[in-house]
Amino acid sequence: MGSKSDWDIMSNVSKTLEKFGIGSENRVISAHRAPHLLTEYVETARDRGLKVLITGAGLAAALPGVTAAHTPLPVLGVPLDAGGFGGMDALMAIVQMPPGVPVGTLAVGKPGAINAAILAASIIALSDDSVRARLDDFRAAQTQAIADTPPPDQA
Prior knowledge:
With about 160 residues, this protein is mainly alpha-helical.
């Protein structure tokens, strides 16, 4: 994430990944204030065993794009509401990547953070049977919870 204040939302990534038995590294590295540190961190991510990078950024939201420019790993971007535009500025910045530098862009805020973790789990599940089983269980439980919900007139 680009700022310590982003942790309130981005902590949902770690919490969700834990449900699938996936560890994570959580770092504050600003694309604007620490560009060399970001480059070093991202360029060494694959060698450290990371499979997917999830970035959260608000305002100009450069972090996801700069991250994607420095790694072949999948990069997921979570736009954050950090200014006066309700996160729409960050959403537009993240989703408008040039061809060849993809960033999977999620919803603004907490829903995006949770879905980024689930999408990362889906990517990892392609080559990890234990994550695939946990993801299958999660989806089945989610479906069952809806099936078990009584109609509004019977609640």
